[in-house]
């Protein structure tokens, strides 16, 4: 028998029993219990198996610092949470909890063989052992290690819960509601400041919850806070990170403690911006390092006190204390006062406060000063301890069923460190305390290093006569790091604590070394014979405790992960069964399959119809910018490579946009509507980028120019009507525009109405056919589309998608920026010399076109490719070589950028970037693809209607 | 998340309203074609990477849309000041 429920005491509600299960066995606890306290009260001492050696482990702490008691809670499909600290899990009726990292059972774990083989698993074991052969990693080492070592299982189902997020602003944010935090809140509450007080536990009080003498004060204080309208209190809320400018992330757990799941979010992410932050996070007691200190039943003295006085649970019937600090004595006295039997107090110090000795004497507790625990009996639970004088003599056994450790205190400076506040070393505390703040923040109470716990000494490893090489004295319980491992790392040459940490993994577990960092540092300091301050402290990073992905993701998942932009015509395409693709954030119809058609069949049909009759295409996603003002033409002349000032109103021009480095960044056809007004189009994905680039030049380089830029991308629906019958379809619908070839030539724009809707009608073509792009206010898009479909029925008008658009433009050698260019392609590389104004004195990127690297020979240039076997469609992205017989690795001279089956030509076509491509016309190049190397001839990029006869009709 | 003062809105707003826009006070040469390759290279590519005060441009892209200048300490990530484009270097 080990732990048991004390007959009285604690803050639990003994009238309300709670039934739950752990590893399939049924247990009973009380309302107000944590899973840890209820199991402990039921005599459970074994909570888990350690990460590496699978050693049996019990509770060490009583809160967030707990390294061992990691459990999983399951509450139905998708609601499985691993790696919860049992000490932080509020009990509810029907809870199903399981232990982790054991097989087949917690008491008999096959993986514990690792413990017997422990001598083969020293620090750096993984680095040293699994180095070669490399191929073994993937197939053997990694899967085996993953099976053997590990924490809880990852959930396999989709999480059905949803998670909320909110912003909050306050004058004072107080983190931690122990006595120091509550005092700070009361003080601030008396002002008219807005205050938020948050605490990770289910009730406020912190350390006061395990000090019944403070309960009346606590009641009064909480009533006062509740009566203060300017105070917001958040419980079960963990401040996990402290970011710039007093921005704190906190997660409130809303449903994990409830027996039945209500509607509403599981957790809520609070993003809090505070004028002032007060950290009152308290301090965490340090374990002592000695042989067998990880045996279940060895725990922190402060934790035993919490279990006894807050939860009414004795951690054992006969409890011994190993102390290097006064606080442990007071905790032992508190346990004795609650009716827990104290077997002995052992203190490593020779001299302690007389008052403590007198009190121990009065309580009849055996005391051994100048002694240390040198061994623990029992494997699944403490059965007794061996103690000896610090010189190793006079070893004797003490029978007990639990052993408390009181090794001093470590201020909880995690959030302080997140905020980049500096730390100062306090030799007397053996700990770092907050020093100079970097934000408007201060620490109060124990996390500032001010406490009334008494005094102590810092001992890195307790004295022992045993062979240090055979000690199992753990520093990091969760990652199974022993004092021996840290000393080995130092012997092997590691000097910086950051390196020692990574080599030994000390402090790298899910508890981030809350109980192990300082002990590890002390041991390294001794081994290196250097002061702690010369070794440094590892960095604290968010989160303070692990948080769910759900809380951080909030609603940004699934369909809400990012917006899907849809055009006004999208719903029509959906009704027709279009297959969609995402282009930037736009959902675009890729093709419109008829019954029985695959993509190739559908695209071939769509291509045939555009070339032979008329096709209709939703081009609404094109980026659009309205450029207006007396200097609009001058501005565009400076931005684009070609001349714009002489463009007449009513005419369009292809614009090529470079960045200052000379590389193509965007292109599009733009129209001059009036002397001071242009309608620009950009690529679908480039709209925001182009507007930003133009705004940059307008605002910062040429603020003297008088014009403004307005994004109109979503103001217009754009319907492209392409094919020899396009004009015939359009004629009956348009009013106020003469569509004749003479009155409305290619690359012109007219304004009028179509079906009564005002329109900017472009005569442009991205297919090489007679074509129009009809711009109407977005809301009319689908209406107009359906009217055109009806009108075009007699020409068998065919809707086509982006895939057909790609094929048709490739047949004409029109590039797609971002597909055929990659940010290293100049206008000359792309064969767009004609679009560069040779006489212009300047434009963005012009000077770079004369850079040595740009004019050097051998640049990759965009060319057409025709495979010798016309049925072969090359893979886009396939690499190109000049000589297929050279040894591997071959020298790659380029790659395929676009490649399609051209139904029009009855063969495949491709575009490629090839070194010196323009001078390789007619030459063979080779494209190694899976199974075969294909031969292709370099050709012009214009595969169809090179003279443009089909346009000028 | 840093708070940034927009000198046009005269408001401190959250970082996610802003976009970084590179080093400040690099004026585009008035006649780029008159520059040697080395001079153009310096304008185009050579940037400071100081440990400490850094003059840089930001754009209040999800606010007023204006570009402005700032002095930020690259060690502490704190803004010393922000000021309008065209104002002298601070």
CATH architecture of one domain in chain B: 2-Layer Sandwich
CATH class of the largest domain in chain A: Alpha Beta
Predict the CATH topology of one domain in chain B.
Folate-binding fold
Form type of chain A: elongated
Described by strand count, sense and barrel closure, the largest sheet of chain B is:
4 strands, antiparallel
Overall number of structural domains of chain A: 5
**Number of helices in the DSSP assignment of chain B:** 1
Strand order of the largest sheet of chain B: 3-4-5-6
Looking at CATH, the homologous superfamily of the largest domain in chain A is FAD/NAD(P)-binding domain
Question: What is the CATH C-level name of one domain in chain B?
Answer: Alpha Beta
Give the structural class of chain B.
mainly beta
The named CATH superfamily of one domain in chain B: Folate-binding superfamily
Q: What CATH architecture label of the largest domain in chain A applies?
A: 3-Layer(bba) Sandwich
Looking at CATH, which topology of the largest domain in chain A would you report?
FAD/NAD(P)-binding domain
Mean pLDDT across the residues of chain B is 96
Spatial gap, N to C terminus of chain A: 98 Å
Low-confidence stretches of chain B: none
Provide the structure class of chain A.
Answer: alpha+beta
